[in-house]
Amino acid sequence: MYTILRRYFSRFLLALLLLLTLFPFYLLVINSFKSQTEIIKNPFNFAARWQFANYAKALPQVIRPMLNSFLVTVFVILITTAVSMLASYAFVRYKNFRGRTVLYYGIIALLMIPGFVMLIPQFIQITRLHLYDTFAGLIFPPAAYQVAMGTFLIRSSMESISKSLFEAAYIEGAGDMQILLKIVLPLSTPILSTVTIMTGLNVWNNYIWPLVASSGTATQQIAVALTKLVVSVTDGNGVLFAGYIIASLPLIILFCFASKYFVAGLTQGAVKG
To answer: Which terminus in the chain has less CB density within 10 A, N or C?
Structure first.
């Protein structure tokens, strides 16, 4: 009897947590189809008259910043995964080179440094390199910061790969690049998906660095653009909510396609087998 009650209580608790998690999204969606007056009068129910014009007004204001953010996010992901993969392979395969431990812990130490601490030094650096208000200035500093987490996760996962695979490949005459591309890379797909999603989320939602590192509309990122949406008094928050939903669609699509590998990658990186 106690076991049955505990099981039902656990299910009830999970259902309650799910409801509390999804309720804000429900409010966001239904209020994105309302006028400001209806949002104030009736924020919890469906719209009496669906305002699809809210999306038509929000889309032109967010489409260019979304493309800019997509470009920056893709390049940051590519740089992060490539550098993290190469660094992790070096740490796993070459365990006797001098300074290996100091170098690894130096990279991991970046995880303990808040991004705000590096904000001013990074701004001074990109300004002196004439990268202010450029895509390069928006890409390289976040990529350098994300490499630390990527190296930590990929190295932990790579440690679980059987050493006999490396030894067999060396006997067959394969070089390091062949081993990396043909053996390690296919086996590291789950953790690479995890790093991709985590990096994509961090870069897409990053507000402080794009606000500091750019000022023009040519390189404006979506997180900054959402704070500058132009709406009328009648439209009010409906257009803002519509903009938020449009801006979140790429992340939702990314997670839907890679969620399976994301969970597998977290488990693979946390457990050494």
So the answer is: N
Q: Tell me: pLDDT of 43 over 90.
A: no
Given a cut of 80, whether residue 272 has pLDDT beyond it is no
146: which residues sit within 8 A by CB, 6+ positions away? Answer: 76, 80, 199, 202, 203
Residue written as tokens 């070096």?
90
If you average pLDDT over residues 56-70, what whole number do you get?
92
Report long-range pairs for 90-95 (Cβ below 8 Å, ≥24 apart). Answer: 91/151, 91/155, 92/155, 92/158, 92/159, 92/161, 93/166, 93/176
Closest CA to 184 of 157, 222, 153, 148: 157
Model pLDDT, residue 237:
85
| Contact predicate 129/141, CB 8 Å | no
DSSP annotation of 46 reads P
Domains of the chain and any CATH numbers: 55-270 (1.10.3720.10)
